[in-house]
Amino acid sequence: MFTTLAHVHIADAERFLEVFAGHGLQARQAHGSLGASAFLDADNPGRAIVLIDWADRASFEGFVADPAVREVMRSGGAMEAPAFTFLTRTGVFPA
Predict the structure, then answer these.
(1) b/e per residue, 37-52, with b = 16+ CB within 10 A?
(2) CATH of the domain at 64
(3) Domain hosting residue 61, numbered range
(4) Tens of pLDDT, residue by residue, the chain (95 residues)
(5) Is beta strand 33-40 parallel, antiparallel or unpaired with respect to 47-54?
(6) Does residue 25 belong to any structural domain of this protein?
(7) What is the pTM of this model?
(8) Nearest to residue 54, comparing CAs of 20, 90, 30?
């Protein structure tokens, strides 16, 4: 599994979440996403943080290279390309 953390500057949180859950879901699934979580920055309503699990790095690379994905991001109010950080999950722990 390959996980990405993305920081996205957005115009409108409601629009972002609507597109992320709809057209964004379809785009992620088409490129091998295994699941995603979206967060809004409590101190900055113009910033979303997204964790996405991918089958592998090639799936993620296909996603970001797809011109249709860039259009989906724009339609969701992304002000610029997301800044991605690549993560390796090393554990999941109970509270």
Answers:
(1) ebeeeeeeeebbebbb
(2) 3.30.70.100
(3) 2-87
(4) 999 999 999 999 999 999 999 999 999 999 999 999 999 999 998 999 999 999 999 999 999 999 999 999 999 999 999 999 999 999 999 98
(5) antiparallel
(6) yes
(7) 0.91
(8) 30
